[in-house]
Design brief:
Length: 374
């Protein structure tokens, strides 16, 4: 596995830095109905189920487009028109699911906590006990808005106790933060190719409990986002219904091969955790403060509060760090000015240290004495 020389290092939560091997896999053309492609497709679907510990209970349905397409498709396919969702919101991606439900005219209620706080589990219990009309609970595993790790294990326990259906947006966590269907009872999990499995962007996928998908015929509000139809067609012919993202799928197959060589979820989690530690401690030496305490921080992306030094200007900082080869990520918090640095992608702790060194040099150039926030 190697980095492509002279490419910028993406400290972003996807698209992210991919290995040279993954990119090189795209240098060929593939017939979408040819056996070689169909075999790769079947392999990828099977491996994704294995990663989720879900081979005997769930099926994997891939879908063209970015992660949002897969989330919207899963909600529209699994929540019937007569259903009602409870959405746990503590950032933009929970919020986005409420927007989708609005578009598809499904009833929903929202339980919101601040961006730096996990969902309120007591309130969840109470709502599930008091509102029998709720059929589905929607949660985000790592809320990429802040980088917070949400307690999906406990959420799943409560949802199962109350016999409701749990749908998890695990976009930025899948493959790096353990989520095993044998231990965490979920009916669907959605993620995409260009996150912790380190593929290139272009497709998402949903891992759905077979019996729930079997019952979802006719629910979808959209043909292209109907995962029941996508699944049925793929089961019948092994093919995608509509033009598949062939190169993306082949690169994903290659990326998953490297994921397995690294030791699967445990191996990837260990590298990202070390990336995160290197980043946070290096940034602390420069005065920067993360938004989240370590126990709430997922090793995926870190939100830093904006420095108070009047000489600091984020756009200048961003541009100059980029000139040194590292792409940072603007903040998405509504509560406080911030910026983010991703720990995921084909990067090692040594790359994170080099990024911190680049940021240090830029601060000196800008005449910023410290990254300390107000
Ligand atoms: C948790 C989460 N959900 C959904 C999405 C949406 O994915 P996309 O931007 O690929 O549509 C993202 C993207 O970063 C995410 O982090």
């Amino acid at each position: 596995m190697s980095l492509t020389p002279n490419d910028p290092r993406l400290l972003t939560p996807g698209p992210l830095t991919t290995s040279h091997e993954t990119k090189a896999a795209m240098l060929h053309d593939w017939g979408s109905r040819d056996t070689a492609f169909l075999e790769a497709n079947a392999r990828v679907r099977q491996k994704l189920l294995e990663i989720a510990g879900a081979t005997s209970t769930h099926v994997c349905v891939p879908l063209q487009g970015s992660g949002t397409f897969a989330v919207e498709a899963a909600l529209g396919t699994l929540i019937p028109r007569s259903g009602k969702a409870l959405v746990l919101v503590n950032g933009a991606y929970g919020q986005r699911m409420t927007k989708m439900l609005g578009y598809m005219q499904r009833a929903f209620v929202v339980q919101e906590t601040p961006e730096d706080s996990p969902p309120d589990l007591e309130a969840l219990q109470q709502t599930l006990a008091n509102e029998p009309s709720i059929t589905h609970v929607l949660a985000v595993h790592c809320e990429t808005t802040s980088g917070i790790l949400n307690p999906v294990e406990q959420i799943a326990e409560f949802v199962a106790q109350h016999k409701r259906s749990l749908i998890i947006d695990a976009m930025s966590a899948f493959g790096a933060i353990p989520l095993d269907a044998q231990q965490v009872k979920f009916d669907a999990v959605m993620a995409s190719s260009n996150k912790c499995l380190e593929g290139v962007p272009g497709m998402g996928y949903a891992i759905i409990r077979r019996e729930k998908l079997e019952q979802s015929k006719g629910n979808a509000h959209s043909l292209s986002l109907d995962l029941y139809d996508q699944w049925q067609a793929m089961e019948a012919s092994s093919q995608w219904r509509f033009t598949p993202p062939t190169h993306v799928l082949i690169a994903f197959d290659k990326a998953i091969e490297q994921f397995e060589k690294e030791g699967g979820v445990a191996g990837r989690n260990a590298r990202y955790s070390e990336n995160c530690r290197t980043l946070v401690s290096g940034m602390a030496d420069l005065g920067f403060e993360p938004l989240l305490p370590p126990e709430r921080q997922a090793p995926i992306i870190v939100t830093f509060r904006m420095p108070a030094d009047p000489a600091f200007d984020f756009q200048t900082f961003y541009d100059r760090v980029k000139e040194r080869g590292y792409i940072l990520y603007p903040g998405k918090l509504t509560v406080a000015p911030s910026f983010r640095v991703g720990c995921i992608g084909h990067l090692q702790p040594i790359d994170m240290q080099a990024a911190v060194d680049a940021m240090k040099a830029v601060l000196v150039e800008m005449g910023v004495a410290s990254g300390k926030p107000a």
